[in-house]
């Protein structure tokens, strides 16, 4: 079985009337000068990450649909476990951060909250194995006079358009699949070919000092 070519899905602005006051988890991604050294304390646990406000000096090597490709930005690894928490909150030591979602599925909204005219590109990537990756969605957020919340829920779903062969084996009716269900099912389908599939964000920052992500349980 071969995974077919990925097709990026751009996310849209949040619908008018969206309720942002309900219970939710929040991830704060704070942009610092590229030579920031921190204050000597740990940056794990909690809900905050520290990343370069300009990631032009950082890059990630992926095998995009089997082709080795260098893409701009830092890597934010995302897993799902018992609770919401930041696992690695400092991108300055190795160009990566990590956080864990709590159980369940979520509606996800993203906004740039500081420094007008800055922007951040985020791309969701599935790493099926060491030599095959594909992107499942992207979003660009920027700060205007008032923070705009963007619906980024699609960053956490693999669609039948992206994976027409495998998705039908996992979800009746070729429905979109929550990315962590997809990873688990992919490993179950062929644990030799896909021994440890993972999900991460390519976070390409161009001046944003604060990007906030909110997770509302669906």
Describe the structure.
This protein has 2 helices and 16 strands. 8% of the residues lie in helices and 44% in strands. The protein has helices at 164-170, 179-189, and strands spanning 12-13, 25-32, 48-52, 59-64, 67-72, 74-80, 85-88, 96-101, 106-112, 119-129, 132-142, 150-151, 157-158, 177-178, 198-206, 210-217. The strands form 4 sheets. A 6-stranded mixed β-sheet has the order 1-12-9-16-2-3, with no helix packed on it. The two termini are 32 Å apart. Mean pLDDT is 85; it is low at 1-12. The longest helix is centred in the C-terminal third of the chain and has 11 residues, at 179-189. With 218 residues, the chain is mainly β.
Q: Keyphrases for this structure?
A:
218 residues, mainly beta, six-stranded mixed beta sheet, 2 helices, disordered N terminus
Structural Rg? 17 Å
| Major sheet characteristics | 6 strands, mixed
Form type: globular
Distance N terminus to C terminus? 32 Å
Low-confidence stretches: 1-12
Q: pLDDT average, as an integer?
A: 85
Q: In which range does the helix fraction lie?
A: under 10%
Q: What portion of residues belong to β-strands?
A: 35-45%
Structural class: mainly beta
Short description:
The protein has helices at residues 164-170, 179-189; strands at residues 12-13, 25-32, 48-52, 59-64, 67-72, 74-80, 85-88, 96-101, 106-112, 119-129, 132-142, 150-151, 157-158, 177-178, 198-206, 210-217. It has two helices and 16 strands.
């Amino acid at each position: 079985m071969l995974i077919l070519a990925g097709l990026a899905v751009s996310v849209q602005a949040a619908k008018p009337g969206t309720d942002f006051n309900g219970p939710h988890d929040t991830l704060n991604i704070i942009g610092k000068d590229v030579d920031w050294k921190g204050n000597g304390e740990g940056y794990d646990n909690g809900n905050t990450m520290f990343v370069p406000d300009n990631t032009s000096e950082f890059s990630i090597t992926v095998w995009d649909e089997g082709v080795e490709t260098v893409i701009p930005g830092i890597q934010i690894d995302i897993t799902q476990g018992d609770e919401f928490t930041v696992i690695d909150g400092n991108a300055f030591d190795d160009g990566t951060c990590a956080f864990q979602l709590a159980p369940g599925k979520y509606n996800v909204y993203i906004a740039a909250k500081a420094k007008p005219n800055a922007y951040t590109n985020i791309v969701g990537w599935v790493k099926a194995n060491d030599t095959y990756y594909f992107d499942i969605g992207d979003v660009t957020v920027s700060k205007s006079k008032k923070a705009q919340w963007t619906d980024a829920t699609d960053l956490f779903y693999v669609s039948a358009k992206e994976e027409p062969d495998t998705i039908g084996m996992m979800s009746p009716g070729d429905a979109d699949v929550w990315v962590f269900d997809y990873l688990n099912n992919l490993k179950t389908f062929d644990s030799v070919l896909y021994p440890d599939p993972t999900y991460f964000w390519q976070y390409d920052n161009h001046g944003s000092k604060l990007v906030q992500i909110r997770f509302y349980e669906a």
